[in-house]
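Hypothesis: this fold can be encoded by more than one sequence.
Test: take the C-alpha cells below, design a sequence, compare later.
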C-alpha cells in the first residue's frame, strides 16, 4: 500500500482482478485500512471498477469477509451508498445471510444507519424476511448486526409491514428475556418500539403477549434497557388508550421519577396515555398511592414537562 503512494486506490482496484488468492487478501486488507479516511473513500467511490469488483468478490468464500468489510466502510457516506446500490450489492449481501456471514450482515447494518440507506435496502422485498430468518439460527455474533439492521429498518412503514408478514414479533418476544445479553435485549426493544409506532404493529405486539416481558425489563433491566422498555410501552399506549397490565404499571410508576430524563418522559407518557381508560387510571392511582407517590403527576395535567399532558402528542414523542 505504501509503495503505491497517491495511486494506492487505483492500484488496489486493479489488483482486485487478480487470480492470486494471497494478493487478493492483502489488497482487501490494505483497501480496508485506506478506507478509514474520507479522502480515500471518495477516490474509491469514483473508481469505476472498484465497487463492482468488491461485489464480485463476495461470491468467493475466502474473500467474502474482506470485500464485505470494504463495502460496509464505503456505505458510511452518501456517495458510497449510491455506488453500492448501482453495483447491486444488497442482493449479493442478502444472499450470504443463510451462510451466517457476519461481515455481510455488518455491511447491511452500515447501510441501515441512514434514511437513504434504509430506502436502498427496502428496494429488496425479501430483505426483512431474510434478516428475520437469520435471527432464528444466528450465533450471537450474527444476531447483533441482523437485529440492529432490523431495528433501523423498522423506522420505515414499509419495513414494518414486511416484518409483520415475516413473523418478526415472535422472534423479538423471545429476545426480550433476562437470559439474553443486555445489548441484544436493548436492540430488540428498539425494534419493538419502532414497530409499535404503527397500528398493525401495536396489535401484533400486544397479541403476542409480550407486555409482561416489557414490564419485567422496565423493572429489572439496566439503565438503557429500562429506558427502551418504557419507550416501547409508551409507543404501545399512545393513540390507542391501551390498558396496560399491572406488571407494566408498577415499574412505570417507579420510572416516572427516574434521574434519566428520557426514561422519565417515556414512563410518564405511557401512564398518561393508558390513563385515558378509567379502570386503568384507577389502577395507576392506586399503585402510586401504594408506592407513596403523588398520583396527580402521573395522570393529571398540573405539572411541567415531562409531566404535562399538553406535550404528549404522538408526533412529538415519536420524533424524540
Amino acid at each position: 500500500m505504501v509503495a503505491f503512494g497517491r495511486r494506492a486506490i487505483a492500484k488496489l482496484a486493479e489488483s482486485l482482478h487478480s487470480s492470486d488468492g494471497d494478493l487478493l487478501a492483502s489488497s482487501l486488507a490494505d483497501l480496508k485500512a485506506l478506507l478509514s479516511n474520507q479522502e480515500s473513500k471518495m477516490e474509491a467511490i469514483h473508481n469505476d471498477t472498484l465497487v463492482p469488483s468488491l461485489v464480485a468478490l463476495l461470491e468467493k468464500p475466502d474473500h467474502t469477509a474482506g470485500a464485505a468489510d470494504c463495502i460496509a466502510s464505503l456505505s458510511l457516506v452518501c456517495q458510497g451508498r449510491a455506488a453500492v446500490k448501482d453495483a447491486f450489492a444488497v442482493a449479493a449481501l442478502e444472499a450470504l445471510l443463510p451462510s451466517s456471514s457476519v461481515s455481510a450482515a455488518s455491511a447491511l447494518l452500515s447501510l441501515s444507519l441512514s434514511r437513504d440507506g434504509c430506502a436502498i435496502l427496502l428496494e429488496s422485498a425479501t430483505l426483512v424476511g431474510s434478516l428475520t430468518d437469520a435471527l432464528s439460527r444466528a450465533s450471537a455474533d450474527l444476531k447483533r448486526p441482523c437485529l440492529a439492521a432490523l431495528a433501523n429498518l423498522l423506522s420505515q412503514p414499509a419495513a414494518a409491514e414486511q416484518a409483520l408478514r415475516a413473523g418478526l414479533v415472535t422472534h423479538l418476544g423471545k429476545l426480550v428475556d433476562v437470559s439474553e445479553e443486555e445489548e441484544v435485549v436493548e436492540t430488540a426493544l428498539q425494534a419493538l418500539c419502532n414497530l409499535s409506532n404503527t397500528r398493525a404493529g401495536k396489535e401484533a405486539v400486544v397479541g403476542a403477549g409480550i407486555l409482561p416481558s416489557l414490564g419485567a425489563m422496565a423493572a429489572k433491566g439496566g439503565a438503557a434497557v429500562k429506558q427502551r422498555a418504557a419507550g416501547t410501552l409508551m409507543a404501545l399506549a399512545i393513540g390507542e388508550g391501551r390498558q396496560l397490565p399491572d406488571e407494566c404499571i408498577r415499574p412505570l410508576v417507579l420510572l416516572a421519577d427516574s434521574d434519566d430524563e428520557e426514561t422519565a418522559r417515556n414512563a410518564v407518557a405511557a401512564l398518561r396515555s393508558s390513563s385515558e381508560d378509567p379502570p386503568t387510571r384507577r389502577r395507576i392511582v392506586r399503585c402510586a398511592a401504594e408506592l407513596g407517590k403523588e398520583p396527580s403527576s402521573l395522570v393529571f395535567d398540573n405539572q411541567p414537562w415531562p409531566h404535562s399532558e399538553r406535550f404528549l402528542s404522538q408526533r412529538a414523542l415519536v420524533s424524540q
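Residues 307-320 have pLDDT under 50 and may be disordered. The CA atoms of residues 38 and 77 lie 9 Å apart.
Hypothesis status: open.
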